[in-house]
Amino acid sequence: MGIFFSALLSLKGEVKECAVNELLEYANEDKEDPLFALILELSLQHPGDIGLFTPLMLNVITLQPGEAMFLYACTPHAYLKGSGLEIMANSDNVLRAGLTPKYMDVEELVACTKFDAIPFDSLQFTPELKEGGEYYAIPVEDFKFALFESITDLSLTVDSAEILLALDNDVTLTHESGETVVINKGQSVFIPAYTKQYQLTSSGRVARAFN
After folding, report:
1. What is the pLDDT of residues 39-69, one digit of tens each?
2. Mind telling me the catalytic residues?
3. How far is residue 105's CA from residue 192's CA, in Å, rounded to a whole number?
4. 71 and which of 75, 176, 177, 201 could share a cystine (Cβ 3.0–4.6 Å)?
């Protein structure tokens, strides 16, 4: 798979143009298929891009509200449309694999990619309801994630630095010291580890990235 992936992304000139044109011709003949309809849609945004082949090699997933998915490092992925919240561990690189006018370092990309097939249904998961919120079972130790909705003075214990994001309404944070912080929709707040504990109140949804 790595050899094919590298050869595909390395196509240039007339060979690349011919390959993309044949892909689009095939997609037009079967545009009722959601996968080929997606390729045609992407071709309007990224005409002539060799990355138009990638939906044929990657899982194409549509998340519904409240659903989540997890990807391990070294996994090629693309966010296509809609609104979503992405949380990631520390990273020191971004390698492109198509659907971009920017430079692609194909050799380095292939060296950093894990070419392991992952079952489609293993990527998505739903949260567990506990402790006043929805907790998502992140399969790594780098971070945790939870979502809260319509809560009043929910007490949360802090074991590490964390970030809260107000998704659709104001959020009020109260500390035992008497300090209160209010953040508006779309704003976030950083909470240091020494906070130890605080109370959370909001009539909307609040995202929490912590450890």
Report:
1. 999 999 999 999 999 999 999 999 988 889 9
2. 96
3. 38
4. 75
